[in-house]
Amino acid sequence: MSLLRFNVINEAIKRKAVVVGAPEGRPSDYFGYNVFNKEKMLKYLPKKSYDALRNTMENGTPLDITTADVIADGMKKWATELGVTHYTHWFQPLTGGTAEKHDSFIEPDGNGGVLEEFSGKLLIQQEPDASSFPSGGIRNTFEARGYSAWDPTSPAFVIDDTLCIPTIFISYTGETLDYKAPLLKALEAANKAATEVCHYFDPKVSKVYSYLGWEQEYFLVDEALWAARPDLVLSGRTLMGHESAKNQQLEDHYFGSIPTRVAAFMKDLEYEALKLGIPAKTRHNEVAPNQFELAPVYEETNLANDHNILLMSLMKKVARRHYFRVLLHEKPFKGINGSGKHNNWSLGTDTGVNLLSPGKTPQEKLQFITFLVNVTRAVWKHNGLLKASISSATNAHRLGANEAPPAIISIFLGTQVSAALDEIEKSDGNSVIKMDGKQSMKFSISHIPELLIDNTDRNRTSPFAFTGNRFEFRAVGSSSNCAGAMIALNTAVAEQLKLFKKQVDEKVAAGTSAEIAIIEILKQYITESKAIRFDGNGYSDEWKEEAIKRGLDYETSVPLIFDRFLEADTVKMYADTGVLSEKELHARAEVEWETYTKKIQIEARILGDMALNHIIPVASRYQELLLNKIDKVKRLFPDDKVDVLAKSDLDTVEEIAEHINKIRELTAKLIDTRKVANKISVEREKAIAYHDTVAVLLDEIRYHIDKLEFSVDNEMWPLPKYRELLFIR
Ligand code: ADP
Ligand code: MG
After folding, report:
1. pTM to 2 decimals?
2. If you count Cβ atoms within 10 Å of the first and of the last residue's Cβ in the chain, which end, N or C, has fewer?
């Protein structure tokens, strides 16, 4: 076996579980230990400043600089007691991931010494030199300034020796350059619109929260094996690799026990996550070998999203302590399941009502149906945009590639809810519903709760499914920032609820009772948005045809899907809700196209290098070995024996030559098409060229490499194979 491959396999096999010291106390003791949460605010802030901060967190009331100074001082005091020496504004640039620049607390004291200082000014706003973050043209290089500004709604936390302040990131001219700022605006728009609609049912509601419960899927690979795969190291996925004889066919991984090494990693990760206030709750094996999932308890969306981003970086760090590498790529291995990040989403009031949970009283039931139907219509109207919001070069390997979910957004409601909507649609319009419950409803809404309690008809092929008290947006990719999806969804719902309110109010103004007006408008919505409802098999070809007939977005080319960011309906939606300006949308689309191009470009380079430096040399060496044998056979045996003794070797030599020639030819083509594409200056056109002419070659080249892996002597093959990468012992 190639020495490198032998060594790394050997290293991986010998690895034992790394047992990190057991956490001290119970989870409830150390939960939030590293977070400046309410408990610490109470302890480290004077009552007046504490109240002011709570008021800012809950009602968005601006903080004055004097109070900010006091808060900064309290934070510093708490943090320095934990041994913290630095602080950073933690933000989420459009690259995905997070950015941070650490500054020390120290300031000269004027007498040759230093003091630990942290002022309100530094807490509230900073000006990171962030000229290298993507801005889609908003920040020209000569105006490279960007500001980070404190988001008090997400608590500060400590990692290692650094106090991290969650911030938004905006340009000098005020445009948002990150994920958090528009997310906060989208959540505010949803809150406003939903609260107003709630007032039809309960005037006491003063705030509606958006909730997010993500489920993070990931792969683990032993670090030694990972390091011997340049494709994994540089692109996060295997660009080549013959399928392992055993994959996920036996479905033994999902229900199997968690391997000891992995269990030790999970425990360590959960301990760290809990200390950071991430309410990690569920862990399990996933369908594919080496694939796992972590899910927390759901939280308010902005906080939940910060926690997801934080968890992703935590995973990478903790994995290394256990000699693993974590793969967050949506499709690290061909032929087995990829990873997603289901976004469980709901809306709930400050009075404690989940608006997507079928209530008990007629009033609650109508409220539930109102929100359900409005969400359905919002998703129908913006299905193309929702797809754009979860699309990327990496997620494209999941979507539509005969794997959950398909590249067409549809909604699964389940039979009971569907039946209820059908009934409302068919009702004669004179249905009377009385809020005081004196008169019962004429349609079957009253039956919903009983039926839903054991609503188990789940549809795993649906990208957007109602699961009893929430929607589950399953199309989100494992590596993405959930904010992409959450901005689009919450804004679409906000726009929709505003429209609903307007239409109901118009009817009421014309003399209709609110209840009748609500039902009439809902009936109309149910009819209009029927096209988005689909309970069948999302993978079938029939569904694709049907979806086209229904007018749903069926585009599969990622660069073209990004066009949805700039369509009139999208621009209007974001403008009317105040979430994103047209300029910001253009910038975001630019960044999406640019990122797409770069990802494919990097993969193309790696594949070209590996084909020429790893694969062809090895295949040639094996050819040579065979040719030596053939040569000897020819010298030692009479002609009529040569055929028997060397026929198969001659065939193999030829077969290998064919693959090598193909790889050379296609690699040359890959370089040429890239050169052509690189000359294109318009980002959209460049991304399209990369999609249409470069990305397709990756699969073609891979085909021949995988064939070679199958015919070349196993002993010579330099790269760890799928069967070695995928089964942690
Ligand atoms: P499954 O794998 O069956 O979908 P999990 O238990 O793995 O379920 O994950 C479900 C996720 O949905 C969890 O994060 C959970 O907290 C979240 N969730 C539950 N109820 C709600 C809700 N009302 N709103 C948002 N998320 C929710
Ligand atoms: Mg789920």
Report:
1. 0.95
2. C
